[in-house]
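1st attempt posting a full record on here, be nice pls
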Amino acid sequence: MQDLEQAIREQAYHLWVAGGRRDGEADAHWLVAQREVLSASLGQIGRVTVDEANGPTASPDKKPVRKPKAVAKSKAKRRAA
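the predicted structure (as tokens):
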């Protein structure tokens, strides 16, 4: 966990330097750095994109989530009736 915090700290520092070393923007730099580092870390596990209108979606290479069999059976019974 300390490695993750250190990576965020270093990225926030680089953002501060790139932004002209202005005071009062530490929180903003930290949040941007946190998002970048966590996105890079999670990107290695599985890709998720966020569409502002529809929310998070899995990448197209992942299979869609299947409904439990009990739900599928109950819908089939309703259709047959």
